[in-house]
Amino acid sequence: MSGAPGLIIAAPASGSGKTVLTLGLLRHWQRSGIAVAPFKTGPDYIDAAFHSAAAGRACINLDIWAMREDILASCAGALTSDAAFVLGEGVMGLFDGAVEGGGATADLAAHLGIPVILVVDVRGQGASVAALVEGFARHRADVDVAAVILNHVASARHEAMLRAALAPTGVPVLGAVPRDQSLALPARHLGLVQAGETEELHTFLDVAADLVAKHVDSDALRALGRPLPEPPNVTPPVPLPPLGQHIAVARDQAFAFSYEAVLAGWRQAGAALSFFSPLADEAPDA
Question: pTM for this structure?
Fold first, then answer.
């Protein structure tokens, strides 16, 4: 038996706009009544918090480089337990990982057996986009680049040129998103900007969803999804053993980094969790 279908949003490089488009898709489907479960490739806490806000449910990190295989399988399986669809966001470029190899978005996509949607920043490009997309599509036989979304399209003429160039590659274009400076997220690396620090976050998410609804064929994207593997029929492993029977966890704008899979594992192991805010001078109730 297989889990809910899913796919991964990836890009040739960081800064291509995959986070904004992922957030737009998550919010668009959430507003449409579709139970979509988000995940983030790698250990990034920050994008995961944005995903949680957009989808209305906790985002799970899937790190094929750092997680044991049984924990990865358990976390991936948890995504499908009550979701109609699973949407993940990659990290850096599609094939970028550890220096010694492994840990790339492509590795996770191949491991899960789900397709990749490539977001391409087309600023300053014309027919050359075909060579880029075809190269990414052919680079690894075990990675399925199933479609492309063109981002930062300058005009209708620019879009027509790009679509004509990409037609011979056989990779379908399922979106052409125009330039929109109002949807630029500030730098989020190293925790400089977090979801809770972005003013009018939900307005931003709704604008991103409106953009996706207008310029991306989200129904065709969902149709490309493939089922994630179901977790083994064994007691799910606990990523980190609980520290005690009652664990007080600091949680506020200063203490915002936590892995949902770890908290869920503690609860599963029988620990009771309570949360407190050091910023509000709260003492832990433990």
Answer: 0.89
